[in-house]
Amino acid sequence: METGSISNDELVGGFDAFLTIESGQTYRWTRSDGAIYAGRQNPDAWYELAIDGEVVRARPTETGLKWRSTTDADPILRRRLRLDDDLERIVAAAPDDPLLQEAYAAHRGLRLVTDPPFGTLIAFICSSQMRVERIHRMVTTLAREYGTELEFDGHTYYDFPTPEQLATATEAELRDLGLGYRAPYVVETARMVADGVAHPEDARELPYEEAREYLTRFVGVGDKVADCVLLFSLGFDEAVPLDTWIKTAIADYYPDCDRGNYAKTSRAIRERFGGTDAGYAQTYVFHHLRTGAATTEPVE
DNA sequence: CGCCAGGCCTTAC
DNA sequence: GTAAGGCATGGC
User: Fold this and answer.
1) Which of A39, A112, A120, A260 has its CA 20 to 30 A from that of A191?
2) A155 CA → C7 C1’, Å
3) C-alpha A180: how far from its chain's center?
4) Do A233 and A179 form a contact (C-beta atoms < 8 A)?
5) C1' nearest to CA of A240: which nucleotide?
6) Structure pTM?
7) pLDDT tens per residue, range A241-289
């Protein structure tokens, strides 16, 4: 076992584990008190992640982040929670927009995440018409039923299944596990990746809009889910997933950005949110609206 | 009971 | 290319 810590002093712009992990971007983490996504913090709870055959437990402290792990967790935490992002620069460069500025000010320390592409693809296929707590439950269930079991500190953890592991599932099994109509989508997509038909990783080398188009070849993946995979796992910080909350934001605050279809509206709101870091802006606005924290008046 | 949740698929035009 | 309807499940 290894232990270590990461000091707040090194993290430009700060870091908030609760906001970053529990803002609906990543569904891979669990919390030692079992109360993740319940909307409240617990300074005594550890965030736990099973990934790439390793287990990482991390807990925020007054001076930063303390961790215990099966391996050196420093590079894992820095990559997965984007601790080396210059958040101060990103916030400072954000457009002078009332709702966006309010969101950035209200949730300081919220960072984007970088999750593994296959797991992110499956998680957001599951996300269709589903609340974040239940997406987390589905992902956790898939890990428990099909993922590799890992032991650490006397506890059992489950890595998210590989495409090959998940491809052994049947639609009936996944329906029994509560995935509903998403069950065949998950099975078919897992088989596509396991069989080498396509891999979400292949989208990484493409220009943004071509990458989004590429990902929609997977079953259960439309423009919105594709944008989530690009933003939360493939490093496309310009991606702005148009989900129900962002569509509400467009209707209430940016009506001129509604261009009638996904591709054109996406371009307009991406431009409004500052272009290259528009995905960061999207995640703050999403969280701001979803938690009911917004006080900015709608336009007109 | 009805409504909604980080939508997508099929079908019809 | 766009529009309408169906789809599982659980919490309120």
Assistant:
1) A112
2) 38
3) 22
4) no
5) B6
6) 0.98
7) 999 999 999 999 999 999 999 999 999 999 999 999 999 999 999 999 9
